[in-house]
């Protein structure tokens, strides 16, 4: 059902008007009906009473004369009143005299009349009846049909009651009148309502029309978005104002729209312009990007070409350099005239210098290309600094400078790249030496911080190189770190150099996590320094040294250089030594004598060789001449290796020990310990330097066979000769294919593989060897790994990776020094194959040419003992290794039976790997004592074990045992006191 709220405005208006009208009309109608009914009834009553009175008056005479007829005629007039159905005249006793009855009296009327008569009879007879005395039925005012009005009027004659007139009216007329009246009223009401509806419909249009129009306009705008639509104003009232407001609003919207459209258009124009310029900028950008990309490609190609050029250049220069340096080194080891030696030395030095420049250029390009990678190995920081300063001892001495090392006393074992650190320090010290005319150079290492947390174990170390040289003007102090920049262009002429050293050093330091800086003032000197945080080495590199013997010992340091005095003071103090320092010989003598008389004499005096006034030697002589001071142990700190005669003179004067400056801490400590233990006699009678000056340690790998794969004949010669120093057997292949073929037939312990070769290069050959090893593993289940060391003149980044990727194990950059090869052999050959010997250069040169007595591959020696090998050991003995032969033989005789026993056990257990290792071990120790037959047998056993051929080996071990007994008998003869 629709509620009022849901009706449209129009219907609401109509409904309101109609409802109001209907209510009003109903109220008015009801009032009229009530009023009309009331007045009509009153009138009817009055009329009936009047009628009764008239009849009563007319009947008086008839009753007086008892003329009932006339009385009846009087009643007969009632015929004119159709609504009177019954009337009567009675006597005073209420006995009906005459009656009037309407013809058609209904039963209902009759019953009603009868009931009324009963009522009227109960009432006292009225003398005079008024309208009020008429009675109406109780049914209501309206006198509905069936209701009766009764009037009883007395008939009086001079106050004598003659009777009564009773008239009964059924109010028919009244009812008819009232009905008519109702009808008319109803008609009027309906007519009014209809009129009201019409008027409402007409009026509502005046109100709803503008609203509807507004609604229609809104609908249209909503669907068409046309804000030009306007609603016509038809009234002046609030609706008119509403329409105006609506139109105004539309106008504003339209104006906004127009403005918006204008803005839009402007914006679009701007956007179009911008888009256009952006498009052109984009185009330009694309072009630029393209150009840049082209340029980058060109630059990359150029850089690659540069790298390639550097690689090639390095290869091309290093290959002949290898020959030059290697041959010069070998040449220097032969007997040469002094003049020839000098020439050879110059060749070697110039070669080394040239190699340094090539290395610098390569390093620089490597760093520039971001291809330089740092190593991570454990090393002792002091050792690096000391090693660097030692390198310059000679040049410093030539220039008359002091080169000092100030180091912390405790060993600092760290993890990092010692090679690169050495390179940086070498550059700094080399510059310091180069740019200092007089004074001192101090290489300093200080521990700034030790982090020892749960997760972090590191040292923060400060490295500094200080000099008292020419200094660098402030404005040039940054520039010198640029590549190819020197503080002063004229320096190149004066001092040489490429201007690359500091650029490389700074970048290396940065790679290590530090910053290389300089403090300098012109004419005063410079201090270059950097701070590094280095991880601690996992384990201490050296056993802690026992310095208890030094504790409390009184030492006098005599040196005119205050810095050196200070450094020595700190070092001696760190070992618990009581020490004083004086600057001159005179002060020293005074001090020594004073101490002597105070009963607390100095035990050791460290004398600087070169001092203003009294020099070290002179002072030593004075001391020795003084009987009081003769017990004093003297250590001479020399700036150079003294010429033999002076050295001898020093010994004779009574100098116990001579140490080279910069003095290595370990060396000094060891020297002091020896002195105190009395191991070094006074006066140099059995003076042995520690380590003995000029004596170097050499390693030998006698039973090792190395396959050298190299196409260059000179390089072959150099490598062969260098390997000969280590007593390795060498087989040579000219290219990769030859090496592969050779390896198909033979075995070896290590391969030195050149990378660039004709037919098959080193990378392919290495890959091929590894593939074979894998195939062998799959076939026999035995894992064999032949160490392959790349030899390359390509010292640029990426080579190492390429070599490793090809399956090689290590990398040796040509030209390689003997130490480099030693390091590689040490790393890759079994420790059991190594023999340590000490040889002095003089002894080395007196050794038979290494090449001549190379064990010849494949040929077994006839004799059980090779006397040549024993002779070599004897030569070593004569150079200081006293009792070496006896020691070696005794050790061998002790060890060999145990090894043979282990061989047996390995065979019983079918443990091929152990058998191989033990055979190898006995093979190499046999070679060390010249038991070459035994060596050959062991070698064979080793290769069988390696191939897993264990079946035939039982008999072989018996052979080995027999051969050992033979060899033992022969070797025992070599022992000074035969244990038997
Ligand atoms: P160079 O090979 O020319 O020595 P470096 O890069 O090592 O190249 O040094 C660049 C320049 O810095 C040197 O030419 C010199 O002018 C200046 N320089 C470096 N170290 C020192 C120093 N200790 N004292 C004075 N000048 C120095």
Describe it for me?
The two termini are 140 Å apart. The longest helix has 95 residues, at 238-332. The relative contact order is 0.05. The protein is built from 27 helices and 24 strands. Helices cover 54% and strands 15% of the residues. It has 980 residues and is α/β, with parallel strands linked by helices. The radius of gyration is 71 Å and the shape is rod-shaped. Mean pLDDT is 80; it is low at 137-145, 680-697 and 837-862. Strands 6, 7, 8, 9, 10, 11 and 12 form a 7-stranded mixed sheet that branches. Strands 2-1-5-4-3 form a 5-stranded antiparallel sheet, with helices on both faces. Adenosine-5'-diphosphate (ADP) binds next to helix 9 and helix 11.
